[in-house]
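ARCHIVE CARD
CATEGORY: sequence design from structure
SOURCE FIELD: tokenized fold
FIELD CONTENT:
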């Protein structure tokens, strides 16, 4: 009664936190503002993200996770500590029990880094779960039944593709190309074509407003501002949806190839199930306009985007949390399946 069970979707772009019995309680960007003079954390989450590109030399706004794994251990631990404290604020608890989602393709060293960061942040017990499994459960796929289910989870730093059956991953593929790489591709395209340098926030807004994998109706041009690389002065240009689609083509092709590669490794019986039921897309990157249509046309398989795709991983984590953290992960999977 004096312990809180907390689930954390520790993403490259955003971190979502849920609490057993309360649901999703926090959605914050995975950004930390650090004062480099004394290594003190000045801000975390939304407040820190607003500082990106606008800080003085003494303050650096950083993303401590890169491609879904920890790039800066100390900063990640500080961020987790702040999020855990905020989640259990006002509760009579000593230390929380935490379940954290990790990419399926991480190494043992990277797994240990996540575990140790959570312990340093104040977690009493730490359990880890693969993101594709959590995403599939959150999207409502029948992953505990003897049928094949395929999920494509496109986050900020990684795209996870997995085929699941009987409560486990049969085959999977993890590529470190996702939403953040789409932003970088837009920045690179505009720099090369227009000699204009834009920031991360501008690139993200371009992706949201004009980004697409296929042509779409009512596409409008967008005026953007940046710094001219020739004379160093501020400048404006107008960019079209077709240009943004060209900039994103390589990222879209890489994700599609990952899906194709996973299907090629899938046992025939499960592959036939996927052809009948289709592919489920989750994660913020799946919201790219027309991406589901593009993948469906390339692979001749139905593709659909989950309801509230950004929340699928944390919702799946919450469902597993409700089955108790005293059991092992596989026991909890079986318990969840038996009570559905």
């Amino acid at each position: 009664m004096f312990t809180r069970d907390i689930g954390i979707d520790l993403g490259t772009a955003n971190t979502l936190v849920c609490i057993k019995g309360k649901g999703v309680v926090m959605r914050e960007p995975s950004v930390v503002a650090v004062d480099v003079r004394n290594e003190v954390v000045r801000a975390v989450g939304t407040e820190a993200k607003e500082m990106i590109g606008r800080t003085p030399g003494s303050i650096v706004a950083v993303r401590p996770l890169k491609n879904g794994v920890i790039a800066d251990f100390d900063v990640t631990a500080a961020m987790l500590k702040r999020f855990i404290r905020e989640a259990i604020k006002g509760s009579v608890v000593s230390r929380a029990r935490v379940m954290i989602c990790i990419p399926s393709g991480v190494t043992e060293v990277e797994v240990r880094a996540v575990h140790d960061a959570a312990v340093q942040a104040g977690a009493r017990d730490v359990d880890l779960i693969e993101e594709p499994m959590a995403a599939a459960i959150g999207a409502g796929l029948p992953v505990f039944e003897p049928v094949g289910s395929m999920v494509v989870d496109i986050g900020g730093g990684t795209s996870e593709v997995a085929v699941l059956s009987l409560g486990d991953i049969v085959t999977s593929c993890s590529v470190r190309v996702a939403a953040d790489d789409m932003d970088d591709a837009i920045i690179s395209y505009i720099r090369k074509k227009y000699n204009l340098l834009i920031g991360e926030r501008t690139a993200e807004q371009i992706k949201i407003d004009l980004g697409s994998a296929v042509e779409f109706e009512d596409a409008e041009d967008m005026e953007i501002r940046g710094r001219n690389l020739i004379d160093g002065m501020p400048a404006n240009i107008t960019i079209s949806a077709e240009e943004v689609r060209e900039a994103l083509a390589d990222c879209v092709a890489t994700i599609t190839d990952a899906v194709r590669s996973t299907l090629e490794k899938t046992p025939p019986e499960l592959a036939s199930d996927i052809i009948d039921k289709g592919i489920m897309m989750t994660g913020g990157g799946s919201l790219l306009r027309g991406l589901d249509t593009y993948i469906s046309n390339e692979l001749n398989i139905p593709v659909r985007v989950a309801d509230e795709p950004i929340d699928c991983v944390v919702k799946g984590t919450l469902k597993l949390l409700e089955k108790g953290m005293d059991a092992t992960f596989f026991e909890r999977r079986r318990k969840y399946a038996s009570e559905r």
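CARD ANNOTATION: The chain has a mean pLDDT of 87. The longest strand covers residues 168-175.
SHELF: design records, drawer C
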